[in-house]
Amino acid sequence: MRTTIADIAKAAGVSEATVSRVLNDRTEGVGAETRLRVKAVMARSFERIHRSNLVGMGVLPLQFKEGTTAQTLKLDGTETCDVLGLGPALQPQQDLTLCLTRRSGEVVSVPVRCRIDTPVEIDYYRHGGILPYVLRQIIAKNRTEN
Q: What is each CA distance from 46 to 2, 14, 24, 55, 112, in whole angstroms?
């Protein structure tokens, strides 16, 4: 079953406007995204530290291509999203396809740029964030020493 912005808002007990921050043209802070278990954030641009924080928490930052915004796509928060192109061969700043399924059933494919910018950030993302990555490194080191 897919989850919509409205579903997330209802489950978290917050307004759809709060959750829909992830659909804004420019994201400026981390907080609601991780508390609401958001897996990806789509934006026209990212503040450097926000992008880095998202990756560090295992959230996929996706940047719209030039000329594409939440407004030009007429996003209303009821869409479900699928990201095509994620896999073992994921590279920094790789182009991906965001498939938006509207409530009507219409599917819109949107090219986006994955804003994981470095190979180490790919590792963080694959592990679900920097904390799980570091913990797994510590555990692996302890196993080899014992």
A: 26, 24, 11, 12, 13
- Closest alpha carbon to 76 in 52, 108, 49: 108
- Tell me the sheet residues that pair with 11: none
Query: For residues 129 and 131, what is the distance between their CA atoms, to the nearest angstrom?
Result: 6
Write down the pLDDT at residue 25: 40
d(CA 137, CA 106): 43
Report the pLDDT value the prediction gives residue 57, as an integer from 0 to 100. Answer: 87
The pLDDT, as a whole number, for residue 29 is: 47
Per-domain residue ranges for the chain? 5-145
Is 39 within 8 Å of 82 (Cβ atoms)?
no
CA 60 from chain center: how many Å?
3
Report the topology of domain 5-145. Aconitase; domain 4 (3.20.19)
